Amino acid sequence: MAILKVFLIGYMGSGKSTIAKALSEITRIPAFDLDQAIENRAGKSISEIFNEKGELQFRLLEHTVLKEMIDKPEAMILSWGGGTPCYANNHEFLSAENTKSIYLSASISTLFDRLKNQKEFRPLLANKTEDELKEYIAKNLFDRSYFYNQANFKINCDNKSIQEIVEEILKILT
What is the SS3 assignment for 64? Predict the structure, then answer.
């Protein structure tokens, strides 16, 4: 059987990392977080990379680490950063051989509810008012929708438990 790679994409707050861990526990396929892999490689946080090197250098490093992870000859569940599919033609990896890419879709209101209390952990959101945050999420979802919809599958995550989402993914994988 071919080595399967499961890619989870979606906006920040959609649950990619949480779902990857839960799915890994059931499938015994190792889960990796792309942002964590980038931080490990750089020896710095994503925020530090952005602040010190700028977004372009971050996106170049992100693409390099993503490609290296995809090229590894092992099964994995990989949660991508929210912007990853939108840069450096990374969305083309979503339909690579032996992959199942899944867009974890959530509404603006769901994302807002999840992100409004995490602003201090998310540098791009830190200084936004609630109205600015809603507008920012809406604009980003609109701008990124083409790339997110390149995934093989889409799961709406609104009003669903982690277990319900994992069960939907398990159906996709079988």
Answer: helix
Query: Nearest-CA neighbor of 4 among 105, 91, 72?
Result: 72
Cα 1 to the center of its chain, rounded Å:
26
What pLDDT score was predicted for residue 2? 61
State both tokens at 51.
Answer: 């602040």
Collapsing DSSP to helix, strand or coil, 127 comes out as coil
Task: Give me the sheet containing 99-105, strands edge to edge.
Answer: 31-33, 76-79, 5-9, 99-105, 153-156
Rounded to whole angstroms, the Cα distance separating 37 from 154 reads 25
Instruction: Please write the tens of the pLDDT for every residue from 96-142.
Output: 889 999 999 999 999 999 999 887 777 678 889 999 999 999 999 99
Higher pLDDT among residues 4 and 75, named by residue: 75
Q: Which residue in the block uniquely carries the two structure tokens 């701008």?
A: 143
Give the H or E element holding residue 136.
Answer: helix 130-148
Those residues with Cβ within 8 angstroms of residue 83's Cβ, 6 or more apart along the chain or in another chain: 59, 144
The pLDDT tens digits for 61-80 are: 999 999 999 999 999 999 99
